[in-house]
Amino acid sequence: MTPEEFRRAGHAVVDWIADYWATLPERPVTSAAPPGTVVAALPDGPPERGEPVEAVLADLDTLVTPHLTHWQHPGFFGYFPANTSGPSVLGDLVSSGLGVQGMLWATGPACTELETAMLDWLADLLDLPKRFRSAGAGGGVIQDSASSATLVATLVAVHRASGGRWREGGVDRRYRAYTSTQGHSSIEKAARIAGLGADGVRVVEVDPETLAMSPAALRAAVEADRADGVVPTIVVATVGTTSTTAVDPLPEIGAICAEYGIFLHVDAAYAGAATVCPELRSGHAGLEYADSYCFDPHKWLLTGFDCDAFWVADRGELIEALTVLPEYLRNAATESGAVIDYRDWQVPLGRRFRALKLWFVLRWYGVEGLRAHIRSGVALAARFADRVRADDRFELAAPHPYSLVCFRLRADDAVNAELLARVNASGRVHLTHTRVAGRHTLRLAVGSPHTTKAHVDEAWTLLSAAADTLLPH
Amino acid sequence: MTPEEFRRAGHAVVDWIADYWATLPERPVTSAAPPGTVVAALPDGPPERGEPVEAVLADLDTLVTPHLTHWQHPGFFGYFPANTSGPSVLGDLVSSGLGVQGMLWATGPACTELETAMLDWLADLLDLPKRFRSAGAGGGVIQDSASSATLVATLVAVHRASGGRWREGGVDRRYRAYTSTQGHSSIEKAARIAGLGADGVRVVEVDPETLAMSPAALRAAVEADRADGVVPTIVVATVGTTSTTAVDPLPEIGAICAEYGIFLHVDAAYAGAATVCPELRSGHAGLEYADSYCFDPHKWLLTGFDCDAFWVADRGELIEALTVLPEYLRNAATESGAVIDYRDWQVPLGRRFRALKLWFVLRWYGVEGLRAHIRSGVALAARFADRVRADDRFELAAPHPYSLVCFRLRADDAVNAELLARVNASGRVHLTHTRVAGRHTLRLAVGSPHTTKAHVDEAWTLLSAAADTLLPH
């Protein structure tokens, strides 16, 4: 494809996306088609001779978009939203066009340096401790996801706990990771990948009201493990759990980690974005104890997946744990020690120029725009929670400090599951569920910049109407 | 950003990329600026108020592109190229615009099903064994890179070798991975991440001429380990090593793996793409022994990074090793068992809709176009190798079955290092180096669809002229 062919086809694809976004509100949020529908509609193989881009765009409309869950729909309230934005898409388009592979500073100096700068900008925006800035001993890097950030933190923690033997000798003792009963599934997955096994994770009890990790329970677990010859290795504390956005108490947890020499990783995948607003930073109290921290701009900061921002307080320890330097990657810049080679900060070797989408987003919105986006989400969630509170048939299942509301009908699990199924079947909204205190609970997470009062109110109207038909009169 | 604002800005960004590509041949391939140049030129933080996209595009021209290594430049011959193409960029643009997160089938049915179909298409194109198709017990998935594919293969292998205890109990014995002295650095990194340690990798000797793994040396290593109580767990065989594109003998290696019950992963990261051409499939002989296989469409198949295609023969074993299912991800489709949830096939939870770029590439080029691209690269490498062969001052350092030529001046390491530095300093081409039999060796890897005879001949002219000044007369 020549540059001129790309120019023409590129305009057509941009127009297609603009049209998709403009028509999103009218589309059903999810597809009702059964598994296998798309595969069955595709040919068995690629064409022998090439086809024009227009043919593929036409098939997008018939084969792909009718069978998607539309994450950018203003009525998408599931999981945590993964909201992108125009400037993010454009930044990523530049990244694709440049086609730079930033494994080393030398393979794309601007790719590496813009990333370092963007992570420093974000550290300022979130008011993270100074130790995470690149000007000191720390620094930030873009991971694909918080799962990978947790894995990297786990590896560095095991390396440290082993006294450095892990690099060569592997897992040679019983190392243990701690998180609360509300911690993300990626924590167990990271422990498994790191060779600690699922048994290498101890799940710590939470306060029954706040669903935040109990420091007393953590201390008891750590002491029991030490007595048992197990090495307490890493605590993953969560600011904004996936289930309910509970906030673990970092001051108390951090003090315990400091006392016992345990690596502290703070997973703020969703809620970290909120701390661009000074009034939403209370969850960061105690963050000065953390050895590493991450949040996902792709969750609530208008940046397309994949973009997890991960910081460490000691980059030397991270690099020592992960570096492998074969001859074919040796170069003068690396040997000088004056540059960052981000390949040593992550699992894969290669990497995209993902800092561009952050740069585009931060400049298009500015600090004010980002704060307005977060505040809008928090206000919409509060508006929805007010509806729930005002209706005796419903109850809130957990606090809602950010933009997620957990709620249920005052009825059994089967009725709540049916409620969820009915409102989702409308095609107008998409909510997901969790369990709180063992009970089936609905989750409404606001995240899209296109979600307005009207969409939240429509969700409430659908829920209320479904409740009318589900509850006895 | 509204859809209409996106439409206008999107056209501008597309034009910017088209102009970048059109002017690439005139740009120096690499930047001469010292470390810190880009960071120093950036402001200390984001603007308070948003800025227009045009301001960012202007800064791209002054801050970013002058300080890149231009991987898409027709004179880029370094590492293995990571070549993209217009249709790949457009497919990725659609992915960014849709903003779908495909962790589960339910979170994007078309995202999952198109990926399954594209991996089946590729399996046909490469003539992979039937066991890797989704219609049987296997199937394919897109990983970010071959590094991650190797890691996943290692995890499944340890799970199998442990008799299933690994999931809960972690690394409980001495498990060992095998690769040749020419195996990629990601194999050691995967072993380290998996908790086997660098000592968990045994590096097997190669044939001194072909640089392919010696089956006799592998057998001896396996038997010595077994006698020592170490569990031979995985062999990573390479089709097209990074250093010289050597091809390990799969029939002999596979038979040893079968005899001792060792998991066989085949890393064809670069050379796998070549097998779209029937005449370049000899390296796949013996592939029926493999438990898993990967290649990178982002290396030599016109698809932008990141796109590694990874297949397993037994998807059940893979899913068993990696799945964790928290309540908030439970859904009817998953429970039915009728769908693929790709989150269980990889390290991270979230995932982009990367199948789109493959779909766009396969349809734009068609089978004929892909084959023409590979054949062009092989022919250009042969043309360059002929120049080397015809000049007594130079020698070839290894066979060149694909599109990489390893060569050197008949002179010492210092002279060859200086030769490399001088031709790269021209700004017209970029080559990298390796060591072959302990000697400094230059690598010229052809990959870009924009690289023509003229660019390869220019590289030769520069090398020859530099040799004139470096060698005694």
TrEMBL record, chains A, B:
Coiled coil: none annotated. This is Aspartate aminotransferase family protein. Keywords: Aminotransferase, Decarboxylase, Lyase, Pyridoxal phosphate, Transferase. Its cofactor is pyridoxal 5'-phosphate. Signal peptide: none annotated. InterPro entries: Aromatic_deC, PyrdxlP-dep_de-COase, PyrdxlP-dep_Trfase, PyrdxlP-dep_Trfase_major, PyrdxlP-dep_Trfase_small. One of its GO terms (molecular function) is transaminase activity. It comes from Micromonospora thermarum. Pfam families: Pyridoxal_deC. It comes from the Bacteria. Belongs to the group II decarboxylase family. The keyword Nucleotidyltransferase does not apply.
